[in-house]
Structure formats: structure tokens, C-alpha cells
Amino acid sequence: MVLLAALLLPHVVWAFVAPPPTCGDGCSSCRSRLLSRLQWTVSDYLNTLHVITDDTVFDTKQVNTNNFSGDDDDDDDIITPMSWGGGNRISKNMYHVALPKALLQELRTYANDMGITDFYRGLIIDGPSYNPGQEKSVTFQQQNWMVHRPKSHWKSNMHWLSPADETAHDDYLTILSSGGFDQVLDSIGAYFNLDSLSAYHLSFIGVSQCERGFIHTDVNDSGVMAFNLIIPLMLVEGEGPELEILSDDETTTRYYQYEYNVASMIGDGALHATASCDYMSKGEMRLCATVYVGDITATNVRNLLMSLTQAYPPVGNAKHLLDRAGDHWSKTDISKRLPVPMMKN
Q1: Which of 16, 33, 119, 304 has the greatest number of CB atoms lying within 10 Å of its CB?
Q2: Segment 133-153, tens digit of pLDDT
Q3: Whole-structure pTM over 0.85, yes or no?
Q4: Per-residue model confidence (pLDDT) at position 12
Q5: Taking CA 137 as the corner, what is the angle to CA 267 and CA 103, rounded to the nearest 5 degrees?
Q6: Do the beta carbons of residue 204 and residue 119 sit within 8 Å?
Q7: HSE-CB of 182 using CA atoms within 13 angstroms
């Protein structure tokens, strides 16, 4: 522990010597950003460690994508822990989840009709990409969105695109509803014995080149009550695994290959990264949807806010999340569902 502290000290000092921009008023939003910087310096240090890479084959045929057929579905078949080499789990909060087959087509159609797919092609295939760390407000079909490219230590041309306000967020939710995502919420709530769930943070992520993945976490200290689901929409045929996973004890890496109709579900403290890739020579890209879901409570809401990377939900606004807790699934209230699309004239 003494050695680890000594090695980490320069990174921790840097976090406070060069803090992220703040408003100067010490608001909760700025404090969250400062704490996030410290969290990321530790993650950045982990990226410098030598870890044992094991090519043990991922355990396949664990997820039955035909399970969404009725009310008697077995949640233990829909949600399964990620494991390798005959059941070896290296990350206790990494899962994969069978998805309703309608969801893929609904999300693809939405991305195409909104202009999101073409937008990504222009960014990461035809170029130019945004500069590392750059973010901009953009509009799709009169809706407000925000696009953000992570800073240069991510060593990739990945861009995140998310609704920038409640109107765009709720519209995205209706697409999830049309694709049967309520059934996924049913399964997550039952599997983890939760009280309620909300889909509180949504995005698309696209990439065509990654030199080396940046090890990070998506959710921390939620009480195993919040998760990020990565849903593949466009994959590049013939390429290697897309997700790199670092073990909980930080000694071993494994790799996971995405597949259609199956989400990777990432929970508390699960260390992972985009695996190295280069699709540029093929003129192709990888596009996924991401959906953060959680049982939001007064106990975990501050930690959930720490994980937010985009404009919506509002950074640092715990009341906003708490007011929407349990909007989309409840153990005791079957009326809690995702919003349904409005009928068009």
C-alpha cells in the first residue's frame, strides 16, 4: 500500500494543481468535476500498469436471445455474468443481457432517420473529427443534442452523442419503448431485486480507430443498483473483440466480442476500455447505443451524478434525478413504464 501511494502521489497532486475548469463559486457541479478528476487520475495510472493478458476464450452460448416470448421468461437466462474459460469471472459486475430483437431495428431506424448515422460517418470516417476534449451543441430534427470527443488520453476517435435536454431524452425513451426495452427493465429489476428503475442517461457512441483503450469505470458505488448497457447497432465484420475488461484485482485482462441483440451491462467499479481497433482502411465504423439505468435513491444519487459525461441530466443536480426516480419500472406499480411514442397524424 505504501508503494502504491507513492506511485500514485504525482497523479493525485496533478489532479489538484491542474483542476478542471470551475465557476469559482464552489458549487456542487464543480465539486463533482473535481472529484471526477481525481477518480480519472487513478484510472489513468492503472492504464500504465502491466497486466497479464490471457486469451482464454469467452464463454459463449450463455445468452438466449429467444427468451422474450412471454411472461414466464427466466431472468437468470436473460441476464448472465460475463465469464471465460468455463465459468471464470474476473469482474463481478460485468454482465451480458439478451435483448428483444425489435430493439436493434428500432434504434437503427431512429439513428438513420434522425441523421445520427450519417453524422457519425462524417465525423469518424470521412472526417474531420472533433479535437480531443471538444464538445459542441448540435441539432437533429429540431432536437438539441451534444457531441463530445474524450480527451487525448483516450487515444481514440470515439465521440459521444447524447440528448441535451429533456425533450430529446424523452423522445429517445419512446424508441426504447417501441423496441421492447420495458422487458429488459423487468428483467434487471427482478434479477437484482430492485425497488424501481429509471433510464436516466442515454447516448450513442461511435469509433473507427483506437490506438489503446483507456481503462475506466462507468458507474461507482451505486449499491449494485445502476448499470450502463452498451447495445451494438453497427459492427465491423471480421474484426477482433471490441471490449477490454480488467479484472477486479487489476492483474488480468480479458476481451469480449460484441454481438447483435445482446447488451454488455457494466456495473459498479467494473474496469473496462475500448479494445484497440482500426476500421479506417475499410471505411467502416462501430456504432452503439448506451442506456444507463438505475434504482435512484437519496443514498446513491451523488455517486450516479459523478458518472455523467454529457449535458443531460444536468450535472450536479441531484433533485432532477431524484424527481425522476422509478419513472420507468417499479416492483409494486405496473403502470411505471417507458413513455410510448405519440401517434402521428
Answers
A1: 304
A2: 999 999 999 999 999 999 998
A3: no
A4: 39
A5: 45
A6: no
A7: 19
